[in-house]
Specification:
Blueprint: E1 21-26, H1 35-44, E2 47-54, H2 57-69, E3 73-77, H3 83-90, H4 93-107, E4 112-121, H5 127-147, E5 150-156, H6 159-169, E6 175-177, H7 184-193, E7 196-199, H8 209-217, E8 223-225, H9 247-258, H10 262-277
Parallel strand pairs: 1-2, 2-3, 3-4, 4-5, 5-6, 6-7, 7-8
Helix pairs in contact: 2-4, 3-4, 3-5, 4-5, 7-8, 9-10
């Protein structure tokens, strides 16, 4: 049954996967369970690795700490595209530079496998913040190359500029588009450049046919799965809290779109995520 708008109870656990996969992008600090509970619930259904994302300096430090404490959790650290202009406009360019320096220190830790999520978000940032956002993105691209770690990109209503800046700066060897939001044409461009595309629960939404078209053309060797939890809970649980244990719901929907057996796609995702993040 579809979720009602007021239903905030956690969805039931899905049937376990036979081939273990990773949730390549989650926000455990925003979920209503402890880290240990989230890890255990995910492992019980075959989601055995979690990539915890830190979106500002404080959350990035927390992500690094949690990854150091839990063997199945890795960290990614960055200033979110909306955090960079906030700092620059409210606290000044020096504050943005200081935060970027803090992220650079964290990115060198062994439990931190990626720089992200960074990128561009023109949905929430107006023209007055775009320069700071683009400057921050360029700094993160350079940092990922400097520390030889994956770059995790947030791209919302900014496809052309994200691709342009990656070309201008030179994309890191391992670049991941988190919660891929482009169409089939965008997916083809990313595939030609060897960029990984990570799909979230919104690929199951009724109005998301362009996203499914993108998934259909994305090579299996470049596809990842994620929750972006607690956001983007897959159908039929849309509107209820998302968590890493719901990855199998999205993965099974993705396999149907790709015309692949679930185990086959899971094996691709397992290998792709390990290759992208280097664990």
């Amino acid at each position: 049954m579809p979720s009602s708008p007021s239903d905030r109870t956690p969805p039931p656990p899905p049937a376990p996967l036979d081939v273990a996969v990773a949730d390549s992008h989650t926000h455990l600090d925003m979920q209503d369970t402890t880290v240990a509970e989230a890890v255990a619930q995910a492992a019980a259904v075959g989601v055995t690795t979690l990539v915890q994302i830190g979106c500002d300096l404080a959350r990035a430090r927390w992500a690094a700490e949690v990854a150091a404490e839990h063997a199945s959790v890795w960290a990614a650290v960055a200033l979110h595209p909306n955090e960079a202009p906030r700092l620059a406009l409210e606290e000044g360019e020096d504050a943005l530079d200081a935060a970027l320096s803090g992220i650079a220190e964290l990115a060198r830790l062994p439990q931190v496998l990626a720089v992200g999520e960074t990128g561009l978000d023109y949905f929430r940032t107006g023209p007055e913040g775009m320069a700071a956002q683009q400057r921050s993105f360029r700094r993160h691209v350079a940092l990922a190359k400097e520390v030889d770690k994956a770059l995790v990109i947030h791209d919302r209503e900014a496809h052309a500029d994200v691709l342009r800046i990656l070309e201008e700066e030179g994309a890191p060897e391992r670049t991941v588009f988190h919660c891929f939001s482009g169409d089939a044409e965008m997916a083809a461009k990313c595939a030609a450049r060897g960029y990984y595309m990570s799909f979230a629960g919104n690929v199951t939404f009724k109005n998301a046919q362009p996203l499914r078209d993108a998934l259909a053309v994305a090579p299996p060797e470049l596809v990842l799965v994620e929750t972006d939890a607690p956001f983007l809970t897959p159908a039929p649980y849309r509107g209820r809290p998302n968590a890493p244990y719901l990855v199998p719901v999205t993965l099974r929907a993705m396999a149907e779109v790709k015309g692949l057996a679930v185990d086959v796609l899971a094996r691709h995702v397992q290998e792709n995520t390990a290759r992208a993040f280097g664990y």
